[in-house]
Amino acid sequence: MAIAPQRIGDRRQPTTKLPQARSRDSRLYDHVWRKYARRFSTGYPLCVLCLCRGRIGEESRRCGRERNVVDHIEPFGGDREMMFDADNLQTLCKRCHDRDKQRVERRHPAGTVRRHWLEYLRSEMADHHAAEHVANFAAMLPPGVQALLE
């Protein structure tokens, strides 16, 4: 008499994820950073790039505060003190951070990103005729991008 083979799924053991080694970057972005970033984004809730593109008020907040990213204008290279330097921080919506800011960072070497990013913001302000608009929201610009008003 023939015996039917066992079904493959009958003896499957529950899978468990192997512990992953945390990367150096994930160790830097700890609870202290998250708390600091939350306070920073509360003080500067608008996306800097959306502001330079002339999207005003509530429209600039369309992604919602939880979707905003506190971004380092110039990559900080692991220096813990520079990580919390308010002059090197800005708030961007996730879309602007993941698309436009990353493009600028990929194209330019470390040490020159701030200059190129501010040039990019100025060109966006000029293209969208938003200089007056940005001046109206000057209080909501973080210290690192106040140079746009000069």
Textual characterization of the structure:
The chain is mainly alpha-helical and 150 residues long. The protein has one domain. It has eight helices and two strands, in the order ααααβαβααα. The protein has a two-stranded antiparallel sheet. The protein is elongated and about 85 Å long. The mean pLDDT is 83.
Strand order of the largest sheet: 1-2
- Give helix % range: 40-55%
**H and E string:** HHHHEHEHHH
Total count of domains: 1
Instruction: Report the portion of residues in β strands.
Output: 5-15%
Shape: elongated
Q: What count of helical segments does DSSP give?
A: 8
Q: What does the main sheet amount to?
A: 2 strands, antiparallel
* Uncertain regions spanning at least 5 consecutive residues: none
Structural class: mainly alpha
Overall mean pLDDT stands at: 83
Please report the distance between the alpha carbons of the first and last residues. 91 Å
Q: How large, in whole angstroms, is the Cα Rg?
A: 22 Å
User: How many E-type strands?
Assistant: 2
List keywords for this structure.
2 strands, 150 residues, elongated, two-stranded antiparallel sheet, mainly alpha, single chain
Quick overview of this protein structure:
It contains 8 helices and 2 strands; from the N terminus they run H-H-H-H-E-H-E-H-H-H. It has helices at residues 24-28, 31-43, 48-52, 57-60, 80-83, 94-107, 113-127, 131-136; strands at residues 68-72, 89-93.
